């Protein structure tokens, strides 16, 4: 993500901060999971995205991606 402010906002969401920005991230992620065939509906994708954030899986996946691409 481009700016430090945008990166910080994303990290807050992945760490569990709720609000309208988090809702947008969760909805867009859910739609992406549906389009990618990983969810049976957008609602199912939203549930999966929310679960990934709440469990810490989304943040861990981001950390692994950053580590792999900056190594």
Key features?
mainly alpha; 77% helix
Task: Describe it.
It is globular, with a radius of gyration of 12 Å. It contains four helices and no strands. The protein is 77% helix and 0% strand. The longest helix has 16 residues, at 20-35. α2 crosses α3 (42-55). The chain is mainly alpha-helical. It has helices at residues 4-14, 20-35, 42-55, 57-70.
Topology (elements, then pairings):
Layout: H1 4-14, H2 20-35, H3 42-55, H4 57-70
Helix pairs in contact: 2-3
| Count of helical stretches | 4
Tell me the radius of gyration.
12 Å
What is the succession of H and E elements? HHHH
Q: What structural category do the secondary elements indicate?
A: mainly alpha
Taking pLDDT < 50 over at least 5 consecutive residues as the criterion, the unreliable ranges are: none
Gross morphology: globular
The helix content is: over 70%
β content, as a range?
under 5%
* Largest sheet: number of strands, sense, barrel closure: none
The averaged pLDDT comes out at 95
**Distance between the amino and carboxyl termini:** 18 Å
Number of strands: 0
Give me a quick take on this structure.
With 71 residues, this protein is an all-alpha fold.
């Amino acid at each position: 993500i481009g700016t430090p402010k945008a990166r910080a906002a994303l990290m807050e969401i992945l760490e569990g901060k709720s609000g309208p920005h988090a809702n947008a991230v969760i909805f867009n992620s859910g739609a992406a999971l549906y389009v990618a065939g990983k969810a049976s509906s957008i609602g199912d994708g939203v549930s999966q995205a929310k679960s990934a954030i709440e469990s810490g899986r989304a943040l861990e996946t981001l950390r692994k991606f950053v580590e792999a691409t900056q190594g």
